[in-house]
Amino acid sequence: MESRLKKIERLHYITHPVAAYTLAEQTRLVTEAGGKWIQFRMKQTNAHTFKGQAEQALQVAREGGATFIINDDVLAAKMLDADGVHLGKEDLNPLEARKLLGDEKIIGCTANTLADILYLQTLPIDYIGLGPFRFTSTKQKLSPILGLSGYKTIIQALQRQEIAIPIIAIGGIRLTDIVHLFEIGVYGIAASGVILNTSDPKASCTALLTQIKQSQ
């Protein structure tokens, strides 16, 4: 399922604050490994810190030729001239976000159910992050786990209704899950811990990219 409007990468890296790497350093590790999509996610911080960290990561992403998406904050995405925004269920309505950002920017939204997707796909958005696949410690307030069978049921329902919008699987995805997710029709995956929480994040990212290419 190709995007209706814009190029959506198959691997979405989501930044996550850790002691070992700044968010800009994470961005560099991913882009140097060949990753072309960074979702800047930084919770529970003040606006000044957020802006400073986002500007640094954005510069690195630009140098690496990567798409740079701001998590949650539409106004920050507009101010920084990021490539777009990813909206959770409690964030600004996508219709309002589109008015603020314009037609050229990317808007993605979070979904946890088929009903969520059926609603979201009627709005001016470009992709949907569907999850969680399994338990993940990088996100609080986790929704019910979908698992492979949950994804398969949802993807098949979308196919029957001829709904074509890129579905990005998210939530505790491992390297060995990729082939199975692509087999059932998932467009791409979002990753954080599977890259970051390893002894060699760059090599881990390369391995994911290789597996994605082989699984398409």
Automatic annotation (TrEMBL):
Kindly give the PANTHER family that the UniProt entry links to this protein. Answer: THIAMINE-PHOSPHATE PYROPHOSPHORYLASE, THIAMINE-PHOSPHATE SYNTHASE
Name this protein carries in UniProt? Thiamine-phosphate synthase
Which positions does UniProt annotate for 2-[(2R,5Z)-2-carboxy-4-methylthiazol-5(2H)-ylidene]ethyl phosphate binding? T136, S137, T138, G172
State the species of origin.
Olivibacter ginsenosidimutans
Q: Which residues form the Thiamine phosphate synthase/TenI domain?
A: 14-192
- Family, similarity comment: Belongs to the thiamine-phosphate synthase family.
Q: Which UniProt keywords apply?
A: Magnesium, Metal-binding, Thiamine biosynthesis, Transferase
What are the EC numbers?
Answer: 2.5.1.3
Q: Name the gene behind this protein.
A: thiE
Annotated residues that bind Mg(2+) are located at D72, D91
Its recorded reaction(s) are: 2-[(2R,5Z)-2-carboxy-4-methylthiazol-5(2H)-ylidene]ethyl phosphate + 4-amino-2-methyl-5-(diphosphooxymethyl)pyrimidine + 2 H(+) = thiamine phosphate + CO2 + diphosphate; 2-(2-carboxy-4-methylthiazol-5-yl)ethyl phosphate + 4-amino-2-methyl-5-(diphosphooxymethyl)pyrimidine + 2 H(+) = thiamine phosphate + CO2 + diphosphate; 4-methyl-5-(2-phosphooxyethyl)-thiazole + 4-amino-2-methyl-5-(diphosphooxymethyl)pyrimidine + H(+) = thiamine phosphate + diphosphate
**Which domain of life does the UniProt lineage start with?**
Bacteria
Q: What class of enzyme is it?
A: transferase
The pathway to which it is assigned is: Cofactor biosynthesis; thiamine diphosphate biosynthesis; thiamine phosphate from 4-amino-2-methyl-5-diphosphomethylpyrimidine and 4-methyl-5-(2-phosphoethyl)-thiazole: step 1/1
- InterPro entries given for it? Aldolase_TIM, ThiamineP_synth_sf, ThiamineP_synth_TenI, TMP_synthase
Q: What's its job?
A: Condenses 4-methyl-5-(beta-hydroxyethyl)thiazole monophosphate (THZ-P) and 2-methyl-4-amino-5-hydroxymethyl pyrimidine pyrophosphate (HMP-PP) to form thiamine monophosphate (TMP).
Residues annotated as binding 4-amino-2-methyl-5-(diphosphooxymethyl)pyrimidine are Q39, F40, R41, M42, K43, N71, T110, K139
List cofactor names only.
Answer: Mg(2+)
The cofactor note from the UniProt entry for this protein is: Binds 1 Mg(2+) ion per subunit.
* Keyword Transferase tagged: yes
